[in-house]
Amino acid sequence: MMNAKRLSLPAGLLCAGLLLAGCAGSPPVQDHDYLLRPQKLMIGSGSRSVVQLKPVAVAPYLDQKGMVLQTGSSEIRVARHHRWAEPLDEAVERYLQVSIANQAEVAVESAPLTTVEEDATVTVRINQLHGTESGSVRLVADWKVDRVGEEPMLHSYDASITQSADGYPALVAAHAELLDGLSGAIADSLESGQQ
Amino acid sequence: MSESVVVETRTRKISGIWVVPLVAVVLGLWLAVDAYLKQGPTITLYFPDAEGLQADKTLVKVRAVTVGTVTGVRLADDLEGVVVTAELTPEARQLLREDSQFWVVRAEVRGTSVTGIGTLLSGAYIEISPGEGAPTREREFDGFDRRPISPVGTPGKRLKLVSESSGSVSVGSPVLYRGYRVGTVESIELQVESQRVIYSIFVDAPYDALVSTNARFWNASGVSAELSTEGIKVSIGSLQSALMGGVAFDLPRNTSIGQAVESDTVFRLYPDEASIHQNPFSNSKEYVVSFKQSLRGLNPGAPVTYRGIRIGSVVRIMLADLTSSASTESEESGRAIPVLIRLEPGRFAIEDTEQGVAIMEEAVAISVQSGLRATLASGNLLTGARLIELDVYETESLEELGEFLGYPTIPTISGGLAHIQVQISQLLDKINGLPLEGVLERAESAITELEGTLGALRRFAESEGLQTLPITVQATLDELNEVLEGFDNHSEFQQELIRTIKELKSALQNVDSFAEQLSDKPNSLVFPQKQSPDPEPRVEP
User: Fold this and answer.
1) B362 in helix, strand or coil?
2) Can you tell me the distance from the alpha carbon of B369 to that of B306, in angstroms, rounded to the nearest whole number?
3) Taking CA atoms, what residue in B is nearest to A15?
4) Cβ contact (<8 Å) for A111 and B489?
5) Per the CB < 8 Å rule, is A26 touching B530?
């Protein structure tokens, strides 16, 4: 009993010291989580043709939570405090689903919410999607359109824009704008294929 | 001194009165010569009878021109005919030639034609066919009581036909070529020595060119019906040939025209058209085949075939020759009946010559050694006619050509129904030789074992476990199906699984990052490190 009492005092002092040391450090940086959501909601399918959007594949460097900034010619930085609120591939898939439906006269479905046999399937792969310290944002993607009884058609998209303001929220907005452009291109490929 | 001689010459003077008788004689001679020169020849004709002939009335004509008159008609000395004397005009002297013919023209019905109608009013007359021979001083001729079929000088060929019987062919019957009349039967004669009938026919030009060495003549009289192994065939000739009979000729099938023939060539007269096709070849070789089975339906003329191709015909069944020949075989099963057959090389696609016959003989001899045998086969099931079939049988024992009454013999085997009987008998013998008792015992044992096995199988099939097995399998399959449906691409399970994997991956990434941080700064766990702020994207002005 005597020994326990002798040891408890130094341990308590050590813990207190540690706590004090921790509290004495710099204040913690605030984390930010961002959502990718289109501004317009999806229009009902009606009697339009149905397109199934396959799960979107993103480049491995994008398959993490932090937003990516290109800091050099071949160097990137993953933000630790500005993160996507959800996996980027799922966010892009949802975004494209709504955006394509809004820009093309088709109903876009994705697993598991499929209702009828699709007329075509679209498979999208995001190769690059990141900003730069200078405010430039680039999207490189390609996609494949499969129609029943036809040869599959391959397309690609490469666009860069400058974000409208400083900071990550503007970077997210630039991401959304680039994805709108990609959706428009996919919508054009679907409509040209129907003709 | 000269001496003169006086010769006294006495001369008589002929009286001029003699001129008168001399002139008379000269005139007489001149008249006699003139009368002789103006007088035509007097001929003597011998006819069988003098029907319609009258002295000083009956005329002698050539092509309807009167060239003489009958001056006398009397009986012959032997009373076998009549002697007719006719006086011809001097111009008719050139008509008397070596081959001149004389005949009486009367009204006559011959076959389907009527001639000499005009003589019913004018009376009969004697017609002269001058002929083409040299002029003759002969003044006695044999006459015909009717017009010759082919008078001398008619262009064409005169031929002889030989037949075993006369049939319905008569003098004046037509000679037909494919139904068209090209000649006439002139005469029919029965030769006592050979007991054959000789027909003399005349084929008019230019149709005589159709008669060649390969031509065959047949009796085309009336209606003929042929019953053979090929069925019943009825042939009807022309109306004239039906009424009067007739002779036709043609080439046998698949025969070339041959060489031209001279007059008086002798041909055989076949009884009907079918016979010329059955015997279209001139050269043949006769063989003997002997059978120990019924020959019912095998008639002379029946085909002899080799694998279905006709190569000859049956000549006759030599039953009479069998009784006269010495028996060299066992009498146990009766003697085989010999049948004489004729094989023709022309049917083998060999030349229809004697050389062809020799080639055929050699081929037959070699084939017999190789198994050539004769069988009796059925030719027509309806009529029951039979034929002789030659073929090579590999299983036969080696034999050679034999001899029977000078004819080579071809070995025979039982054919047709008898052959089947032999085969059935051999089959039954083999069946009898089978070890049926042992086989049956083993079969019975096998059946018993099989029954036991089937009983065990039945019990197994009726067992409760096997009965419920399908239900259990079905339930398992249903469960498996449900599980597999859960693994569908669109299933919630798979989505949740993917999400979990992603979170796990993210957690591993965090752990990896934390491990790196600890590796760099081990005290970072206790002393929080100063974190550099994230680079800020800025829009360049």
Assistant:
1) helix
2) 16
3) B526
4) yes
5) yes
Task: Please give the residue of chain B at the shortest CA–CA distance from A114.
Answer: B490
Give yes or no for a contact between B162 and B268, defined as CB atoms under 8 angstroms apart: yes
pLDDT at B514: 82
Q: Does B541 touch chain A (CB under 8 A)?
A: no
User: How far, in Å, are A13, A26, A28, A109, B517 from residue A23 at the CA level?
Assistant: 15, 8, 10, 51, 20
Using CA atoms, how far residue B411 sits from A159, B329, B338, B387, B403, in Å, is 106, 14, 11, 16, 10
Nearest CA in chain B to A63: B506
The CATH code of the domain that includes A143 is 3.40.50.10610
Q: Does B42 touch chain A (CB under 8 A)?
A: no
The count of C-alpha atoms lying within 13 angstroms of the C-alpha of B225, restricted to the half-sphere facing its C-beta, is 3
Classify residue A176: in a domain, yes or no: yes
CA gap B396, B398 in Å, rounded: 6
Which of B420, B375, B409 has the alpha carbon at shortest distance from B393?
A: B375
| Pairing between β-strand B223-228 and β-strand B174-177 as defined by DSSP bridges | unpaired
pLDDT of residue B26: 94
Q: Quick one: tokens of A91?
A: 């966010």
Parallel, antiparallel or unpaired: strands A57-58 and B223-228: unpaired
- Answer yes or no: is A173 within a domain: yes
Interface test with A, best of B504, B534, B536, B540 (most A CBs within 10 A): B534
Amino acid, res. B253: R
- CA pseudo-torsion sign A13, A18, A23, A26: positive
The reported pLDDT for the residue numbered A16 is 62
Looking at the structure of chain A, the number of domains it has is 1
Report yes or no: B534 at the A interface, CB cutoff 8 Å. Answer: yes
Let me know: does B144 contact B78? Beta carbons within 8 Å. no
Q: What DSSP character marks residue B95? A: G
pLDDT at B278: 65
| Number of other residues whose CB lies within 10 A of the CB of residue A164 | 13
Beta bridge partners of A113: A110
- ipTM of the predicted structure? 0.72
- Mark yes or no for CB contact A82/B534 under 8 Å: yes
Distances (CA, A) of A49 to A46, A106, B349: 9, 5, 84
How many CB atoms are closer than 10 A to CB B363?
A: 15
With an 8 Å Cβ cutoff, is B16 touching chain A?
no
What CA–CA distances, in Å, run from B436 to A81, B432, B447?
101, 8, 16
Regions of chain B where pLDDT drops below 50: 1-2
Model pTM? Answer: 0.38
As a whole-number percent, the residues of chain A with pLDDT over 90 amount to 44
Is residue A189 a contact partner of residue A145, using CB atoms and an 8 Å limit?
Answer: yes
Residue A125: which domain range? 32-193
A189 within some domain: yes
Question: At residue A59, does pLDDT exceed 90?
Answer: yes
The B residues from 461 to 490 touching A (CB cutoff 8 Å) are 489-490
In a domain, A156, yes or no: yes
